[in-house]
Design goal:
Blueprint: H1 2-6, H2 16-43, E1 47-53, H3 70-84, H4 99-111, H5 118-123, H6 130-135, H7 138-143, H8 147-153, E2 155-156, E3 165-166, H9 181-194, E4 197-201, E5 204-208, H10 210-213, H11 227-231, H12 233-255, H13 258-274, H14 276-284, E6 294-300, H15 302-309, H16 312-317, E7 318-321, E8 333-339, E9 347-350, H17 352-356, E10 372-378, E11 384-391, H18 399-412, E12 420-426, E13 429-430, E14 439-440, H19 441-450, E15 453-455, E16 498-503, E17 507-515, E18 539-546
Parallel strand pairs: 1-6, 11-12, 13-14
Antiparallel strand pairs: 1-18, 2-3, 4-5, 6-8, 7-8, 9-10, 10-11, 12-16, 15-16, 17-18
Length: about 550
Amino acid sequence: AAMIASGRLTALPDAAPCHMLINSLQTAILFVTMKGIAAMIASGRKLTVSTWNVAAINNNPFEYWITYNEPYENLMSDVESFLEAPGDRDVPVQDVFNEDMFSKLDGRMQQVGWESVRSYWDTDFKDRKIVSGFMKDKLLGSKRLASMPDRITNTINVVGSDEPVCRPTIINMYDKDLSSLNKWWSAWEEFMFDTSLEIQTKKGMEQKAPYEMLQPIKKSKYPDITEDEEKVSLPLQTMCGAIFDAILVHIMNTVTSPDEWQGIKSNIVENLNKKKVPRTLEILESSIYIGSDIITLQEVSGSFIDQAKNRPSLDKTFHIIGPENMDSVRDQNSVIFLRKETFPDGASAEITSLVESSFEQGVTVPVAKGDILAITTTDRDGVPFVIASFHGDTNGLATKPVLTATMKAISSDSNLAHHKLIFGLDANTYEKAKPGKQQDVMDFGKHYVSHGLSSCWGDVPDPQNYTTYNSRTYLQPQLNKACKKSDKRSNGDVNPKDFILFGKDDFEVDSLWKDNTGDKVYLEDTAFPTLSFPSDHGILATVLVAKSSATGDEL
């Protein structure tokens, strides 16, 4: 029975006596499970479960409003004012990215075999106003002429280094001096055309300069781009990318002194980017969370897993389990920590592929490699579990299909029939979802109840029990998504996104907390991350008590 429960014995010879034996063994598994639950109840042993989307490292330290200090608030407010009400500061592009810079850029682009874009510069771009005609031009945004090169060259991971290479710009971890446009331009040109980087591609390791990494912008995918623009999309996006970066440098050096903003940026980068993983691990190994029996994490990097295993307190306390098929491209994976004292043998088997193969036929579910991790394990009292961790897509449209597939996978395998499910997830559910485009939190509540599950929030979740509070600033490529300081709560991502699910007949909630400080405290009116709490999702934790009904009359 223990072998079947742990997954070590999955098949028996096809003979009538063996079928009888299988039935007897399944009954034995049920008996062992119920006996284990009874032991939990008798001893008063509870199950502490925590879940946390630790959030992938954000390469742009200014992208989201954070709770920091007054100089930061003043800086971000001044940038907002510049872009919302520039007045006479809305100067022509050529006053910022000047003729000499363009001529040098156009020449470099022709040297690498691209067509000149002099006609676009002379008849259009140089006379555009930097705010109304460029930064806030919606058509330019829909053509992706500035955002596409930023996405590709903003931060580049290189072979053999833990430190990425950053384009000289405001909106990444670039740490050299940008106190003047001339200093910026010299560094930018050298980076784009003269810096050879060894990168991992689909073809293997390749040596490329950043300009060689850019991709043509296709009209078939971005219909607003004209056919003529499509033909020269490589040099045209490079020019627009340069103008975009120049304007950002100009804005920052206009609204405050270079020493002021560069000092603020340096401190944010140090704490929210470079120290993000160590600080996250400090929270997990604190007295608050080191006692967890189960921790499910989402958006975890490979480096995070390695660093966790190298922390003596975490390695001594937990089996740290990553997916067999790791996502090394996005580097965002779901991970599970199992307390060694509670689950002495760790994971018995990974059943992620069984879940993924249980999606409804013909339906495309928006999940990526590494989003789902599902394992089996057995606790010290012999109770078999399925533990799952899941990171939902931005709109939450994969959440219901993944839960349905998980339940189908469990019910389709007789060896899993008596396993107890614990499921920690970033469901990406919304209080006020856009119908058909986002997953409504109340609808998700009805869905998990229909599968015989409950949650740490109960059968009916409170739509105002938020676990996120983040808003985009004006220092990022998509200004249509920027939130004013005064609107960062009303227009931000303030939603009830995170859940811990379990069998309604198996467990009940003894206690519950959420945390956006690392101190078991949740500050409802605080935008996060903060310098001390490095994620845009709060931690969710619950203490579960086994229900006496879970032992069943059969025992």
